[in-house]
Amino acid sequence: MPSADVTHAELIVVIGGGAAGRFRNSSIPVLNVMVGRAELDKIKRDSNLTASGIYMDQPTERQFSLLRAALPHARSIGALISGETPELVSLRKLSSTMGFSLHIEKVRTPEQLASRLSRVLNDSDVLLVLPDTEVYRSDTIRNILLETYRRHVPMIGLSQNYVKAGALCAVYSTPLQMANQAAQIVGQFAKTRKLPDYQYPREFEVAVNTQVARSLGLTIKSAEQLRAEIGGRP
After folding, report:
1. pLDDT of 175-207, one tens digit each?
2. Which secondary structure element, helix H or strand E, spans residue 54, and what is its range?
3. Helix ranges (DSSP H) in the chain
4. Which residues contact residue 230 at a Cβ distance below 8 angstroms, ignoring those fewer than 6 apart?
5. For the range 84-88, what are the long-range contacts, defined as Cβ-Cβ under 8 Å and sequence gap of 24 or more?
6. Is 30 helix (H, G, I), strand (E, B) or coil?
7. Do the Cβ atoms of 47 and 20 come closer than 8 Å?
8. pLDDT by residue (tens digit) across 62-103?
9. Confidence tier at 234 by pLDDT (50, 70, 90)
10. Where do you find CATH 3.40.50.2300 in the chain?
11. pLDDT tens for each residue of 111-150
C-alpha cells in the first residue's frame, strides 16, 4: 500500500516492477514507468486501479522494422517463448503480413531450453528475442548467445546489454527518453486530470555490434542509419 507521504498526492509516478506491485491497489492515479508489458497487463487485470503506463518493451512492429532494415535477406524468424505472451498475436500477424515464416518453440522447463533452441535455429535466419523473463534470464542468456553465434544465426536483442554481449542489434529506449515521455503525460494530467491509455515508448535508439556482424559475414548499416530508416515513432 502507498506510504503516508503520498496520501495527499494527485498522481503517483512509479518506476520499476517492484514499485508497481506496491501501488497496484492505490486509490490515487498511478503512472507506471520502466515496467514490462506482461507485468502491466497483469496489474490491469487484477485491480480496479486508475492507472496508465509506458511499457518498457518495444512494440513488435518496431522490432520487425529493425529486422527488415538490418537483415533485408532474412525470410524466417525464430522465437522462444515460455507460454502465451502479449507480443505473440502481433508477432504472428506481422510475420504473415510481411511475408516471413515464423518458427516458435515453447520452453516450459529449463531442461527443454537446449533442445528447443537447437530446433528453432535449424529453421530460422534470425532469432528474435521477446521480453520473456522465463526464457531469457541471467543464467541462460550467455548460453543462448553462444549457440546462436556457433550456428551463425544472428540475434536481435532487447537492449544495449544484449548487443554488448553478442546480439547483432537491438532497438531500445533510454531512461531519459522514457522520463521525457512520462513528463509529458504528467503535464497532460495536470491539465485534464485524465491519464492516457497504456503506451509504448515513442522515442528510441538502435545499437549495433559490428564485430558480431563481421564474424557472421554480414554487412550491416550503422546504428544511425538503421534508426533513421525505422523512424522516430511507432
Report:
1. 999 999 999 999 999 999 999 999 999 999 999
2. strand 51-55
3. 17-22, 37-46, 60-70, 88-97, 113-122, 141-150, 160-165, 175-192, 210-215, 223-230
4. 62, 65, 66, 69, 171, 204, 206
5. 85/38, 85/130, 85/131, 85/132, 86/37, 86/38, 86/41, 87/37, 87/57, 87/60, 87/130, 87/131
6. strand
7. no
8. 999 999 999 999 999 999 999 866 677 888 888 888 889 999
9. very low
10. 60-171+205-230
11. 999 999 999 999 999 999 999 889 999 999 999 999 999 9
Which has the closest alpha carbon to 36: 209, 173, 189?
A: 173
Q: Which helix (H) or strand (E) holds 101?
A: strand 101-106
Q: What is the CATH number of domain 60-171+205-230?
A: 3.40.50.2300
> What is the Cα–Cα distance from 214 to 192, expressed in whole angstroms?
52
Describe the chain by its helix, strand, coil percentages, rounded to 5.
45, 20, 40
Residues 6+ apart with CB under 8 A from 99: 75
Pull the grid cell for residue 161. Answer: 546489454
